[in-house]
Structures are given as structure tokens and as C-alpha cells.
């Protein structure tokens, strides 16, 4: 993912700032220039970058900062928060209501990934226990009906569409009426796209919106769209009442900046990102987790959710970690459980310090975790339980014992420190404390 480059560039700009001997206006200007250039290379619109730089400058009045304050930390925090702000319009995401038929309408250009995302979202709600149905009102694209029908069969989700009726408004209305009568709780309507924004498309969208009266309109955008994203998202927002955004193909080579522009244009939150062509490839989106991951700080919130999904609750290890003690032995237990049960590549990418290493995707993530377990296997009980410091001599011995490179052992030691830091405060600790009590983070 090219977004990793953006993360690396911003992280290194922050590191340069941290390493400079004095912090003055010039250091801040250099940092802001580097961050701005990185965002610009990722296709974030210039207007947004200028605004962001202005916001940061306003918050960082060096003269007003009391002596003794950790300026570097404050600067980092302000940059981090402003990056989150770019991705978070400050609007709570729409949620369906129990006891009624919630109607969701999808809009977007042809090829954006609308039809694929309709099935992904329908499956998401089905897994959560909602009675879900899909309607194909895309009568424009030959094959749309068959594609959604095929997906619906695969995902075992009720479906309505017509390969003879060419009137999308009539098809949408009929499908929604049928499923409302059936008592479906989530009805997702897929609409036509066009190759480019055309009057005809917007007219059709408005008509469908009028008859199906959606509770939420989701705008689907391909993440690789680049600088055109802002205008495209604005055009859709001006036609129908877009309430949420799904950004697709985040697994590809996209620069990702378009996602940021779409949020600014629609003032709507990104609710999911598409990360592949298959039905489970849909990730819940959280701006703060995303930025943490981008900057290599790890996505502790996401990681905790994943651990909660796969690790049996009330384990002693969780209690220990929650009480502030995190040992190599805890780390090994967590790794083993994740390896046995979980989607490893995603987990590895969420780990603090590893999230922006693109080489760790797919099988590589799996192998990395296994290598770490080998290293942990070569540690003595004293080392595992934190009774001995891992000195350079010990690193060499552990490396020899596990057949891994000493650099990798040192990397694992750094990993543990990063975990410890994450668990010692913030959402990580709170989540763990909840999990140890049997709650959901
Ligand atoms: P629509 O015209 O907007 O309905 O687009 P489709 O749903 O037919 O998707 C267009 C192409 O993009 C298809 O080949 C999909 O498999 C692919 N696609 C959709 N979402 C994703 C995604 O998140 N990642 C990847 N890699 N491909 C996707």
C-alpha cells in the first residue's frame, strides 16, 4: 500500500524534528513543510494541506508555551490530532435501528466497487444477526444483475432484481417494498454507476432516493482516484444526501489521499474500507486507529478488538498485562493464540512499530510471527518472566539458539518495549482491563 510511504514520510519528519537540538519557529516550519509535501505526494488536495498547516501553526505558539513543557511531544500530538481531523468530519456514523426496515442506498461511479461493497456490507450485517436483503437497481450496466445475484447466492442473502425491467426506479421500489413486507431489517439498494459524472446518472439517483427514502446513502469511492476525489465526492453530495463513505481498493497501489478529500467534500465519515475482492475484505474504519497505524504507532484499538475476538476471555495473562506487567512470556502466549486462531497478517500490521512495514502483508506476517515465537522459545524462564535484562550478550545467545539473526532478536526486544508503552496507558490498558473482566473492549 502506497499509503505506507505517506506514514513513513510523516514519521521521519516527526523524528527529524525530535532529533533537532532546539525547537524554534524554523524547526516547526520545516516539519510542516515536510508533512505537507508528504500529504501532497499522496494526492491530498492542496486546499486541505494549507488549512491543516494553518491549524497546526495556530495551536503551536512557541512563545506562549511554558518553559519545561515537552515541546516535541506537544508538537507530535498536535500533528497527530490534525491528521485525524482530516479523516474525521466529527459526525457520528449512522447506525441502523432495531425493529424497523433500515434502507441503505449505495451510490458511486461505475467500477468504484459499489456492487462488491453492497455484498460485503450485507454480509457484515448478516454476521451481526440482522435480517438483511439486497436489491439490484442497476439496470444500466449489463451484468450488474447477474453479479449481485451471484454474490447474493454465495453469501446466502435474499436478493431482488430484474433482468427484463429496464426502469431502475420501479425495480428499486418493488424490491424495497417486497423486503419491507418480509420484515427485513437491513435493505441495501445498489444503484447504477456511469463511467463519468453525467446528468442522467444524478437524475436517476435522485428519483430512486425519492421513492425508496433511504435512511443512509453510502458513497463508494475508489481510493486510487487521486486529486479528482474532491470534485467527484462533492458532485455526489450535491445530488443526494450522502451520509457515509466507503473507500475501496485500499489493498492496491493507491496513494490514498483521495480518501481524505472525500471526507472533506462530503463531511461524512468513512465507515468502512475495502481491502480486497472477497466478501470478508471489508474493515471497519476508525480515524484514530488509521492514523496510528499510518505512523507506525500500531493500532492498539483494532488489535485489542481482534484479540477479544479470538482469545478466550478471563485468561490470567490478560489480568497480568492489565495490572501493568507485560513480560516476554505474555507476549509469547498472545502470539501463539493469534497464530492458532486469527487472521495473522492484519494482526501483525496492527502491532506497534510494525504497522507501516508493507513487506509484512499476507504470508510474510505469518512467518514473522513464527520467527518471533522461535526467538521467544530460546529465552530462559528468567528472561521470559522479566527477571533478567536482555543484554547484547543474551541477544547473541538467543539468536544462536533460535537460528535467527541477532538484529531480529533486538527487533523483538524493541517490539516488547513498544507493547509495554502501549499497555502502560491509553486505550490498550483500558481495553485489556475490560477483557480481563470478561467484557468487550
Ligand atoms: P461497481 O461498478 O461500482 O459496482 O464496481 P464492482 O463492485 O463491480 O467492482 C469493480 C472491480 O473492483 C471488481 O473487479 C471488484 O472485484 C474490484 N473491487 C471492488 N472492491 C475492491 C477492493 O476493496 N479491493 C480490490 N482489490 N478490488 C476491489
Q: Can you characterise this structure?
A:
It catalyses: GTP + H2O = GDP + phosphate + H(+). One of its GO terms (molecular function) is endoplasmic reticulum signal peptide binding. It is found in: Cytoplasm; Endoplasmic reticulum. This protein has 441 residues and is α/β, with parallel strands linked by helices. The chain has 20 helices and eight strands. An eight-stranded mixed β-sheet has the order 3-2-4-1-5-6-7-8, with helices on both faces. Helix 18 crosses helix 19 (406-424). The longest helix has 19 residues, at 406-424. The protein is globular.
Helices, strands, pairings?
Elements: H1 3-19, H2 25-41, H3 46-59, H4 71-87, E1 102-107, H5 114-127, E2 132-137, H6 144-155, E3 159-160, H7 168-182, E4 186-191, H8 199-212, E5 216-222, H9 229-239, E6 242-248, H10 257-266, E7 270-274, E8 282-284, H11 287-294, H12 300-310, H13 316-322, H14 328-341, H15 344-350, H16 363-377, H17 381-384, H18 392-402, H19 406-424, H20 427-436
Parallel strand pairs: 1-4, 1-5, 2-3, 2-4, 5-6, 6-7
Antiparallel strand pairs: 7-8
Helix pairs in contact: 1-2, 2-3, 3-4, 4-11, 5-6, 7-8, 9-10, 12-20, 13-20, 14-16, 15-16, 16-18, 18-19
Guanosine-5'-diphosphate (GDP) binds next to helix 5.
Amino acid at each position: 500500500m502506497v499509503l505506507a510511504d505517506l506514514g513513513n514520510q510523516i514519521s521521519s519528519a516527526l523524528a527529524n524534528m525530535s532529533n533537532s537540538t532546539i525547537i524554534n519557529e524554523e524547526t516547526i516550519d520545516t516539519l510542516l513543510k515536510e508533512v505537507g509535501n508528504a500529504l501532497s505526494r499522496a494526492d491530498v488536495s492542496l486546499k486541505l494541506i494549507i488549512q491543516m498547516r494553518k491549524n497546526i501553526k495556530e495551536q503551536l505558539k512557541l512563545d506562549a508555551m511554558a518553559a519545561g513543557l515537552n515541546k516535541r511531544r506537544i508538537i507530535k500530538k498536535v500533528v497527530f490530532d490534525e491528521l485525524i481531523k482530516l479523516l474525521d468530519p466529527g459526525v457520528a456514523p449512522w447506525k441502523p435501528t432495531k425493529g424497523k426496515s433500515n434502507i441503505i442506498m449505495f451510490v458511486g461511479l461505475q467500477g468504484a466497487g459499489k456492487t462488491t461493497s453492497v455484498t460485503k456490507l450485507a454480509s457484515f450485517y448478516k454476521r451481526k444477526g440482522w435480517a438483511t436483503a439486497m436489491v439490484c437497481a442497476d439496470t444500466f450496466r449489463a451484468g450488474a444483475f447477474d453479479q449481485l445475484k451471484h454474490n447474493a447466492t454465495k453469501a446466502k442473502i435474499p436478493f431482488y432484481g430484474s433482468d427484463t425491467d429496464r426502469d431502475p426506479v420501479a425495480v428499486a421500489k418493488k424490491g424495497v417494498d417486497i423486503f419491507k413486507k418480509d420484515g427485513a431489517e437491513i435493505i441495501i439498494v445498489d444503484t447504477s454507476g456511469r463511467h463519468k459524472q453525467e446528468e442522467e446518472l444524478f437524475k436517476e439517483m435522485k428519483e430512486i432516493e425519492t421513492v425508496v427514502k433511504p435512511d443512509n446513502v453510502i458513497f463508494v469511492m475508489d481510493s486510487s482516484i487521486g486529486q479528482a476525489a474532491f470534485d467527484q465526492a462533492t458532485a455526489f453530495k450535491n445530488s443526494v444526501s450522502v451520509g457515509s463513505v466507503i473507500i475501496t481498493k485500499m489493498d492496491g497501489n493507491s496513494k490514498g489521499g483521495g480518501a481524505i478529500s472525500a471526507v472533506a467534500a462530503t463531511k461524512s465519515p468513512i465507515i468502512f474500507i475495502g481491502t480486497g475482492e472477497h466478501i470478508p475484505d471489508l474493515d471497519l474504519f476508525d480515524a484514530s486507529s488509521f492514523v496510528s497505524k499510518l505512523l507506525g504507532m500500531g493500532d492498539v484499538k483494532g488489535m485489542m478488538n481482534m484479540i477479544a475476538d479470538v482469545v478466550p476471555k478471563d485468561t490470567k495473562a490478560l489480568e497480568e498485562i492489565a495490572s501493568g506487567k507485560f513480560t516476554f512470556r505474555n507476549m509469547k502466549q498472545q502470539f501463539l493464540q493469534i497464530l492458532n486462531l486469527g487472521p495473522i497478517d492484519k494482526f501483525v500490521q496492527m502491532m506497534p512499530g510494525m504497522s507501516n512495514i508493507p513487506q509484512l502483508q499476507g504470508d510474510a506476517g505469518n512467518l514473522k510471527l513464527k520467527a518471533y515465537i522461535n526467538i521467544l522459545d530460546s529465552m530462559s524462564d528468567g528472561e521470559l518472566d522479566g527477571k533478567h535484562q536482555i543484554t547484547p550478550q543474551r541477544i547473541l545467545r538467543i539468536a544462536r539458539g533460535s537460528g535467527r539473526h541477532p538484529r531480529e532478536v533486538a527487533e523483538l526486544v524493541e517490539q516488547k518495549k513498544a507493547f509495554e508503552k502501549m499497555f502502560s496507558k491509553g486505550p490498550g490498558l483500558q481495553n485489556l482491563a475490560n477483557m480481563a473482566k470478561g467484557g468487550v473492549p
